[in-house]
Design a protein that fits this description.
This protein has 422 residues and is an alpha+beta fold. The chain is 36% helix and 35% strand. The chain has nine helices and 21 strands. It has helices spanning 2-31, 35-40, 42-48, 50-72, 137-165, 171-197, 388-399, 403-408, 410-421; strands at residues 76-81, 84-87, 90-107, 112-117, 124-125, 130-134, 199-201, 206-208, 218-219, 224-241, 253-258, 261-273, 283-290, 302-310, 314-319, 324-326, 329-336, 339-351, 354-359, 367-370, 379-383. Strands 1, 2, 15, 16, 17, 18, 19, 20 and 21 form a nine-stranded mixed sheet that branches. The protein has a six-stranded antiparallel beta barrel with strand order 3-10-13-12-11-14. Strands 7-6-4-9 form a four-stranded antiparallel sheet.
Length: 422
Amino acid sequence: MKKTVYGIVVAVLGAVLGAGAMFLFGLGKPATPAPAPQAAAPAPAAKSGEGEKKAADGGAGKGAAPAGGAGGGSGTPVELGKPEKLNWPKSVTAVGSLRSDESVIVRAEQSGRITALNFKEGQPVKAGLVLVQLDDSLARAELEQAKANQKLAKAKFDRAVELQQKNFISGQARDEAENALRVADATVSLAEAKLTKLVIKSPFSGTVGLRSASVGDYVKDGQDIVNLEKTDPIKVDFKVPELFQSKISVGQALSVSLDALPGKPYSGRVYAVNPQLDTAGRAVVLRAQMDNHGGALKPGMFARVRLTLADTGDTVVVPEQSVAMQGEEQIMFKVVDGRAMRTKVEVGQRRDGKVEIVEGISGSDTIVVAGWQRLRDGAAVRPASGGSPAAGGADMAKAGQAPKPGAATPAPSAAPATEKKS
């Protein structure tokens, strides 16, 4: 009985507590949106309040001031400059190789043993100097034998002439004696020629290379002994596309730079054009000549060649970074009355970080050198004061950050006006 009473009491208390909790929750729920009507209250007050309207008008005026300033004098900071006028002749670039003016491989024409080498490797030699002497003992003996036979044939011929005049011998015998003399003369000439082939002389003045034979070596006919190079003047062979064939001629000037000798430009002239094009690359093969008095240029060096095709006089040149590519067009921004005007340009040759402007920009124009990425056609610009600060200011102007300080100014004044109104 007691347990039943206790159960009823507990149930009643739970019901009472639950009802109280629901009542409290119901009271707290409408209390939450109460601030919303208070926040929305300034809106109608702003409509009827003249003070707030003036504050809004004042704020708008303050926000408009920077915009007007940007349109007039402040603008987007960019780097400005003037095009240069340089003497840039029309040219084409190519790569090539240096080669000796004259080059031979000294070889033996007759087999024999080397008895003397009259040169030092890598040293200059004069034309006609005996470079290699082969053993000539056998050849000299043959020459002496041929000379003895020649002498005998000459005596027989003289005797036959004398006897034929006295009609002691027939004319046929005289002719045979004459023929024997001619054979003896030819034998002497042959022996002398063989003896000459055993002496190898320098065909021109130059510098000998590294020999591949030594004194005492037996060399066969046609075997390499040493190379001989004439490097002053020196030649350069290079190829240009067949597109320029009609613009190429003998005598054109060129400049050569070498990776092995940076900062030392060399000049020369084309003296020969191969009449047959290189079918592998469809290119014209040219050969030019340059002075090499100091001997700094060596055959086989890699060369960068710039061939001058025509002299065009002064050319308008701008930094390459000032030219932008938009679609298939190349554009620049030139400044007219403080505003950047998008201008389509036609470019020519490029070199050393600069580009030739064929059409679109004149030498008297003011151009945007850097910072054009932030511009649109007709945008107001001003010269940048420096590097990163100017760039930062330009980014702020682009993002619309400049008007915010002006627009934020009326905010504190608007709040007090609302408070007073309330």
